Amino acid sequence: MAQGRRVERVAALIRREVSELLLNGIRDERVHFGMITITDVIVSGDLQHCKIFVSVYGSPSERNVVLDGLHAATGFIRAELANRLQMRRSPEVIFCLDRGLEKGAAVLNLLGKLEDERKTKDENSLKSD
What is the pTM of this model? Predict the structure, then answer.
């Protein structure tokens, strides 16, 4: 139980610190090419590995540019995390693109189209009656 809470606490701290670094610490212009949202942070039980899931608002080419910038900045981010969190060993950081928000928007768009089709069909059936 205590191990799980510790891992969750470290994940929350990493999320906070990386958010701060994304706003103020990373000078690579590629990172600031699109709007980045950290959607999740998963830390391994031994605190040696950390996956940071990000959503990037923008075109696919903009997303790729931002991800390239994030991958280039992982060494800096890892060093900053070690310094800020006072950890004996900083976890290896891996950035992953989270397409959940993108998929959610596509589903909402599809539901909107289905609703419009249903309304049109209802209106046509009323006119024919």
Answer: 0.75
The residue assigned the tokens 């980045």 is: 36
**What are the strands of the beta sheet with 92-97, ordered from one edge?**
35-43, 49-57, 92-97
CATH fourth-level superfamily of 2-98: K homology (KH) domain (3.30.300.20)
Helix (H, G, I), strand (E, B) or coil at 45: coil
Tell me if 94 sits within 8 A of 52, measured CB to CB: yes
For residue 66, give every residue at least 6 positions away whose Cβ sits within 8 Å of its Cβ, in sequence order, or none: 30, 31, 33, 34, 36, 56, 58
DSSP string, 76-129: HHHHHHHHHHT-SSPPEEEEEE--HHHHHHHHHHHHHHHHHHHHHHHHHHHHH-
Please report, for the chain, the start and end positions of each structural domain, with discontinuous segments joined by +: 2-98, 100-129
What is the per-residue pLDDT across 57-68, written as a single tens digit (0 to 9) for each?
888 888 899 999
Determine phi and psi for 94, rounding to 5 degrees. -130, 125
**Are the C-beta atoms of 112 and 84 separated by less than 8 Å?**
no
pLDDT digits (tens, 9 = 90+) for 91-102: 999 999 987 766
